[in-house]
Structure formats: structure tokens, C-alpha cells
Design brief:
- This protein is of the alpha+beta class and 238 residues long.
- Helix content is 16%, strand content 41%.
- The chain contains two helices and 14 strands, in the order αβαβββββββββββββ.
- The radius of gyration is 33 Å and the shape is elongated.
- It starts with a helix and ends with a strand.
Length: 238
């Protein structure tokens, strides 16, 4: 009987020691730490864009139990994800450089940035002046397409379509004012550091300053691309 009791005591001690060793050989990563890893990733992704981000949701609900060792993290995102809106991410957790967990994470991120906004309704063909626009902070995810973030970028451009007041201006809404129009006679300049030639041509398209348009040399009847310099002048580099 005594021998049986002693055996039970030894087994109990061994079990307790094993349990204690198991506890020492594992670690728990708090949910808050995992969420911070995702938050840091989002902020790093958008830092160079000059945006303010606010994370509405991160789908991590539990602490994470891992083996003992050095823990490192990687976050993977879809290539097309810009850093805001909804996305499915993957949190890769390594212990001593070995992958232990690959956790799917859903995020929803608000982002705010400076946008050029129309102060009044603009008709098609209206040329943008300083009094027509203002820079405001707006939610990026609510504005699709490329928006303007600097007032000077839009000054002198004209509306391609009617634009309502209080509308963030996007690149497809505006265009350069054409200095050369289809069918217009133009002076063609061809020059380099040694020679300068001029000829008369006819524009085959509309173009603003710096745009490339096709022109026809009226002497040779050949067509070629040229860069718009000003009203009635295009340049060919050679």
C-alpha cells in the first residue's frame, strides 16, 4: 500500500513538472500586439502618400499561443490594395524563422488626404482660376480615380465636362486648353544645337502646351509628331 502511494506521488510530481516545462516552452502573444502589427503595416504603406489613416476594423479576436522563441511577423496584402478601404491580408507569424501561423485578417481602413475641390459649378469649357477651387481634407476611399492634391496643378486647365460645386477634381474632369486645333496652320520648327529650320504645316489634332500632335508638312505632305510650343507653333526634335 505504501509503495502504491509513493508511486502515485512520483507520477503526480512528474506530471506537474511536465506541465510546468510545457508552460515554460510556450508563449502567448496578446491580441493587442497582433493588431498593432497590422496597424503599423497600414501606416507604413500609406506614409509616403501624405494621407491620414484610421483603421475601422481588424478581424483579430484572440490571443495567439506559440512555442517559445523569437517571434517575427510579415504582413501580405493584395498587389492592387493602396492601403485604404477593405482588404484581406495575411499575417505570417514565425518563431525562430520558422512559420508557425498564417492568419487571414480582414481590415477596413479610412484614409483622408488633401484634395482640390470646386467652389462653384463649372460648365464645360470653363478655365479654372484661383477663385474656383480650394484645398480641403476629404476621405480618399470616397473618391475614385486620380485626384489633384495641389491647387497649382489645375490652374489654367479647363473643364471637359460640367462639374458640380463641392466636387473633388479628378484628372479625367480637366484638360489643357488647346493652343493648336485640328486643321489649323502651324509653324513647324526643327532645330538642334547646329541648325534651325522652319516650315508651314497643318495640325491633325488638338493639343495644349507640351502635348504631342500629328502635323503635316505642306511642302512634302509628310506627317509626323510634333510638340506644341504655343499658339500656332510646334517643334520637332532631331
Amino acid at each position: 500500500m505504501k509503495r502504491h502511494i509513493a508511486l502515485v506521488m512520483v507520477m503526480t510530481l512528474l506530471f506537474a513538472a511536465g506541465a510546468a516545462f510545457a508552460e515554460q516552452a510556450s508563449q502567448v502573444i496578446p491580441r493587442a500586439k497582433l493588431q498593432q502589427v497590422i496597424t503599423d503595416f497600414v501606416h507604413q504603406k500609406t506614409a509616403s502618400l501624405g494621407l491620414e489613416t484610421s483603421i475601422k476594423r481588424i478581424s483579430l479576436n484572440n490571443d495567439l499561443k506559440l512555442p517559445a522563441g523569437t517571434v517575427t511577423y510579415d504582413v501580405l496584402a493584395p498587389d492592387q490594395w493602396e492601403g485604404w478601404g477593405r482588404a484581406n491580408l495575411a499575417l505570417i507569424v514565425r518563431v525562430n524563422d520558422q512559420v508557425e501561423k498564417n492568419i487571414p485578417v480582414n481590415v477596413d481602413v479610412d484614409a483622408y488626404g488633401a484634395m482640390v475641390v470646386s467652389l462653384r459649378a463649372l460648365d464645360r469649357g470653363d478655365v479654372i482660376g484661383a477663385g474656383d477651387v480650394v484645398l480641403q481634407k476629404r476621405e480618399v476611399s470616397a473618391t475614385s480615380g486620380k485626384f489633384y492634391a495641389n491647387v497649382t496643378e489645375v490652374l489654367g486647365l479647363r473643364a471637359r465636362t460640367p462639374i458640380r460645386a463641392n466636387t473633388p477634381l479628378r484628372s479625367e474632369y480637366l484638360e489643357k486648353v488647346p493652343l493648336v486645333k485640328t486643321g489649323q496652320l502651324v509653324t513647324i520648327i526643327a532645330e538642334n544645337q547646329f541648325i534651325r529650320l522652319t516650315a508651314t504645316g497643318r495640325a491633325r489634332g488638338n493639343g495644349g502646351e507640351g502635348d504631342i500632335v500629328m502635323v503635316q508638312n505642306l511642302g512634302s505632305h509628310k506627317e509626323f509628331p510634333a510638340r506644341v510650343v504655343d499658339t500656332g507653333t510646334v517643334q520637332v526634335d532631331f
